[in-house]
Amino acid sequence: VPLEMRQQAECINIFDDRGNPVARLSKKAETIWLPRLGSIRAVRVLAIVHRSAEQESDTFRDRCKMSEWEFPMIEISYEGALITND
């Protein structure tokens, strides 16, 4: 299934071929990918990762809002940008 990554409001989301949001990038990933959105050629899911609060450290577990969750591990193909010193 082809996916698309684009900015929506203040977030970068990943959308399926019907335009439905299926994932959202972390704040850290947003700072990396926002300047590169125009150079992205393909986005695909490599795996779905399942996590549970039991697997996390005590510090993180206390902040968990759910006992279990899933997130996609994605591959992003992009063209490198030409950087000049003009």
Tell me the layout of helices and strands.
Layout: E1 4-8, E2 11-15, E3 21-24, H1 27-33, E4 40-52, H2 58-61, E5 68-78
Describe this protein with a few key phrases:
about 90 residues, mainly beta, three-stranded antiparallel β-sheet, two-stranded antiparallel sheet, about 45% strand, elongated
Rg over alpha carbons: 16 Å
Quaternary: single chain
Span between termini = 40 Å
Q: Averaging pLDDT over every residue, what do you get?
A: 85
Summarize the main sheet. Answer: 3 strands, antiparallel
SSE run: EEEHEHE
Helix fraction, binned, reads 10-25%
Q: Record the strand order, biggest sheet.
A: 1-2-3
Overall spatial form = elongated
Q: Helices and strands: which structural class?
A: mainly beta
Number of strands: 5
The number of helices is 2
β-sheet strand percentage: 35-45%
Regions with pLDDT < 50 over 5+ consecutive residues? Answer: 82-86
